[in-house]
Amino acid sequence: MPESPTIPPGGHPAPWRPSHNPWLIATAVMAATFMEVLDTSVANVALPHIGGNLSATTEEATWVLTSYLVSNAIVLPMTGWLGLRFGRKRLLTVCIMLFTAASVLCGMAPNLGFLIVARVLQGIGGGALVPISQAVLLESFPPEKRGVAMATFGMGVVVAPILGPTLGGWITDNYSWRWIFYINLPVGIFAVLMAQAFVEDPPYIRHGRVGGVDVLGFGLMSLWLGTLQVILDRGQQEDWFSSTWIAWFAVISVVCLVGFIVREFRTPHPIVNLHVLKNRNFAAGVLLMTVLAGVLYGTTAALPIFLQTVMGYSALQSGLTLSPRGVGAFVMNFVVGRLVGKVRNRVLITIGFVLLAAASFWLGNINLEISMRNVIMPSVLNGIAISFIFTPLTTAAMGYLRQDQMANATGIYNLMRNLGGSFGIALVSTIIVRRAQVHQALMVGHLTPYDPAYMHELAAATHALTPQSGSVLAQMQAQGLIYNTLLQQSSLWAFVENFQLFGFLCLACLPLVLLFKRARPGAHGPVGAH
What we know:
With 530 residues, this protein is mainly α. The protein contains 22 helices and no strands. It has helices spanning 22-42, 47-53, 58-61, 63-75, 79-86, 88-108, 112-127, 129-140, 146-174, 179-182, 184-198, 203-206, 215-234, 244-266, 280-310, 315-339, 345-363, 373-397, 406-443, 452-469, 471-508, 510-513. The longest helix has 38 residues, at 406-443. It is globular.
């Protein structure tokens, strides 16, 4: 393999190509990616078991998720700088080893404090895995095959969060919550061996030079991301800005964000190079990915809550109801991967957002009489829609970037994917609680002796219960049954409004798709995404 790109007669350096088969490299990095992305959702359903086993409340157990997200978010945008500083292959190997070792420590945790520290280490190791994998795939495949490469990558990023709750619920019910962490050990060992054998650093990393550590930039980034993640995770429980410490955290986050942006644009050696956001395609892609992640993670969070709290499904049943969405995404990823390069990315992305809006509005038609099929069908459409968006969106966003910009760009791109998911989950939790309260207050006004419909239902229920309970107790029981129905209806309306909001968000993204320029092979260096 040559140490530097050759110069053809045209005068432009030939793009670097790895010495190994790109699909072997894809296998190596996708094992790490799937393991990391799966772990962001597999622990959710096990929180009650974790809290009970470690003598902690459910509220305290949520720090198992928050600690991981905070450390993960801080490392994500630094991936490009870390790769230049230590070498991408070495960084990838160390991150996989750290993530795997931390997973074993999570499974061994004797108390909640130990588990939280292990999850912080796991987040540090996992933060760089997804952007490194994405950058390696984009650089390893020629431009005309990057659509297929991103489809492969999309299987891990899109399907893993969908399968995570089902897998986590099955493992927790049949074995122990500790095994949701132990299962990472064989996958991690396989990923390390594959990375050592097939992943290699391109010349610009092997011969590159990086400046000193931007300590101020790192500190500002850590503060704004850390405080923002805590706000999003704890905001609803603390009644958002009614809480003094939430308000202060918001002030600190905003001030540090502004300081971080100013610092990174002015320093000669930024820890995160924000100049890449001046690229129109990349900036539009980042914005659309943020919204897409919000809808994906928000829907993934809302549906299990609806099925379990309103419809009475078990954790495993709700997981099985959502699994077909993963099947739809899995199958369609291959189809879309073949279409990228033949059909304009803007067309594919537009189709995807229209289908995603249709799936969200379809879910907005739910009621208390629906069957499992009424949730499965729009969920499958949701998975198909995400596949139409994810691969073309990533290809279009990176279409005008040079190879040496990929690692930094993928770090920012995946950071915004994570933050979009956090915003989506926070939005869901707020809407479900607040709007249910509003509908409850409106509907309870009908439970009066002056409402004929209420009096008719009360009389019918009382008559049915009187033979078993007596007239006085039967009337109290009838009132309780009617009130429980009211609570179900108010919660139902909150979920309906939540899904409808997601539908309108998807439609609002359609004008942004027009911002994408059509990248042509050879137009800007080595990348020609369309």
